[in-house]
Amino acid sequence: MKLVIFGLTVSSSWGNGHATLWRGLCAALARRGHRVVFFERDTPYYAQHRDLHELPGGELILYSSWNDVRPLATRYLRDADVAMVTSYCPDGIAATALALDSNAGLRVFYDLDTPVTLQRIASGEAIEAIGPEGLAHFDLVLSYTGGRSLDELRTQLGARAVAPLYGSVDPAVHQPVSAQERFRGDLGYLGTHAPDRDAALRALFVEPARRLPDLRFLMAGAKYDGGFPWQSNIFFLGHLAPADHSAFYCSSRITLNVTRQAMKETGYCPSGRLFEAAACGAAMLSDWWEGIDTFFEPGREILIANSTGDATAALDRSPEELTRIGQAARERALAEHTAAARAHELETILENATGQREQYATEAI
Length: 365
Prior knowledge:
By secondary structure, the chain is of the alpha/beta class. 40% of the residues lie in helices and 17% in strands. It is built from 13 helices and 13 strands. The protein is globular and about 60 Å long.
């Protein structure tokens, strides 16, 4: 297949979880014989923090304005099997119009931020990538989250066919490595700052640090400032390039996952960071959300914390226990949550959607 994608960014991982996912998924699709062309607007913010210049197994097209790139995009869509627009695509409405008017075999929308999209729609906000007609004209809508998000995409945005396509990990990029002194700690957290994560982050990271002053807590991520409630034993690393993620996960006794509130409320929302840490064999501690047990088994493959007490209790576990949990998580991730597994799932979803579209076309004759 030839997939033409109009998205946010694959070239910069700075404060952006889309990039790592796309890199692994595109490489996996290429290994299965498919071709991916990714259109990305060349914005100053991502240009200043670009850490990828060529798409693994595909083609990256950076453009300065939609009017400039529209003729090229039109040519690429002429023989595309899939035309895909994603959430937070800065030219999503224009790209949608072009994709829907093209001869592409399937017109697909992929929402990598579904609960946030639905929350903003409910608040009456305009969405960058979704026009007033919603998603009704797409042949297929993919969602990064499952559960009731899928129903709400139908009821709130008119999606006709929906399917979950969860995050994944590329085991060639994220794997067990030697611990590095600069990343050594008892509890490590890697994530971009988001206001709706603050309460859980304070309960599961900041307060344990305050209560356990002899332990070392490491935080990495973008968009934090002096207003964060830093403690003397919290060490901030700033943005961490993907090449350093494995060492970060492998250098702390436990890796913490904190979920954005909108995603937590809808459930079935596994962060890509969960799969990355698991593939590295890291012992993971996460807040609870509906469906987490369908991805990792609590107590055996992942630890769950609903309170500061739960987090401090996890830090009391023996090294042997944490090693067993991390190894079990790695086995699960490699069996079910790799980019290769998601690429195969995507193939099946697209094949089914193609069959449905052909059926609709036949019935309309």
